[in-house]
Amino acid sequence: MTDRQADQWQTVCSRQELQVGRFIEFSLASADQNTDTLPTTGFVFLDSTTPRAYLNQCPHMGIELNWMPGRFMDADNLFLQCSTHGALFKPGDGECIAGPCQGDALIALDIRETGEMLEVRLPE
Ligand code: FES
């Protein structure tokens, strides 16, 4: 990743769209510019009242976490869950607390509010 890519903020949705329990998925524009890699997707959601964003990529096998659009939580609605092998991740910091990648973590994206909009970027 170049410094220029790390600086790229990308609008993903409005703050108003991000209701509790809703997950909004997006493609990272900066990742699309790198033709050597597949497009990278991410998701944003409210952790209580705090917006959080992660790459949609399980640390176990590097594949997307969800098998249905917008479905990322476990049955108890406590942890983010990978649909392939069931790894559980803490919503607040993405740490894997159970499953084949226990101790690893999701890659958190930087997130900020600009006016009414939420923007993300790859971490530096
Ligand atoms: S691919 Fe996510 S737990 Fe195996």
Task: Please characterize this protein's 3D structure.
This protein has about 120 residues and is mostly beta strands. It has a single domain (about 5-15, about 25-120), classed as Rieske [2Fe-2S] iron-sulphur domain (Rieske Iron-sulfur Protein), CATH 2.102.10. The chain contains two helices and nine strands, in the order αββαβββββββ. The strands form three sheets. The chain has a three-stranded antiparallel sheet, with no helix packed on it. Strands 2-3-4 form a three-stranded antiparallel sheet. A three-stranded antiparallel sheet has the order 5-6-7, with no helix packed on it. Strand 8 (about 110-115) and strand 9 (about 115-120) form a beta hairpin. The chain starts with a helix and ends with a strand. The chain binds FE2/S2 (inorganic) cluster. Keywords: 2Fe-2S, Dioxygenase, Iron, Iron-sulfur, Metal-binding, Oxidoreductase. One of its GO terms (molecular function) is metal ion binding. This is Ferredoxin subunit of nitrite reductase or a ring-hydroxylating dioxygenase.
Question: Which short descriptors sum up this protein?
Answer:
124 residues, mainly beta, Rieske Iron-sulfur Protein, three-stranded antiparallel beta sheet, globular, binds FE2/S2 (inorganic) cluster, Rieske_2Fe-2S_sf
Write the SSE topology.
Blueprint: H1 3-6, E1 10-14, E2 24-27, H2 29-32, E3 41-47, E4 50-55, E5 80-81, E6 88-89, E7 96-98, E8 110-114, E9 117-121
Antiparallel strand pairs: 1-9, 2-3, 3-4, 5-6, 6-7, 8-9
Bound molecules: FE2/S2 (inorganic) cluster (FES).
FE2/S2 (inorganic) cluster binds next to loops.
GO molecular function, one term: 2 iron, 2 sulfur cluster binding
InterPro entries: Rieske_2Fe-2S, Rieske_2Fe-2S_sf
Domain Rieske: 50-120
